[in-house]
Amino acid sequence: MTITLSFKNKVDRYNRDTIRYYISHSDESSKKHRSWINTGIKIKPKEIDTRSWRVKVSNANQKELNISLEDAKDKISKALTRFETKQFTYQQVVSYLKGEIDYGSVFIC
Predict the structure, then answer these.
(1) What is the spatial distance between Cα 3 and Cα 7, in angstroms, rounded to a whole number?
(2) Model's pTM, two decimal places?
């Protein structure tokens, strides 16, 4: 499974683009699964360094946006760790990144 950050490549009226998660996974039967999930972070593409996914100093909201991007990177790391340890399925990873509650991982006594 691969999870990366990417742009939606559709700007709004303020020339901002939405950053989203791109999830790619091939299961045992070689079926390819792909999903794109919006993070809710909007920024002008020229104000971000896409190699490190950090906002440049020229943006007035640099601190807040960098905190949001670090949170998004942490979610990616947690989702990949849980998937690799077989705590999450593909659908649970998608639900986790969307921010939905997935009751499939809850144990009822």
Answers:
(1) 13
(2) 0.84
Which string of DSSP letters, residue by residue, matches 6-39? EE-S---TTS-EEEEEEEEEE-TT--EEEEEEEE
* Tens digit of each residue's pLDDT, the chain (109 residues): 999 999 999 999 999 999 999 999 998 888 899 999 999 999 999 999 989 999 999 889 999 999 999 999 999 999 999 999 999 999 999 999 998 865 555 655 5
Tokens of 82: 């849980």
| DSSP-derived 3-state class of residue 78 | helix
CA–CA separation, 26 and 86 (whole Å): 15
Structure tokens at 51: 């190699």
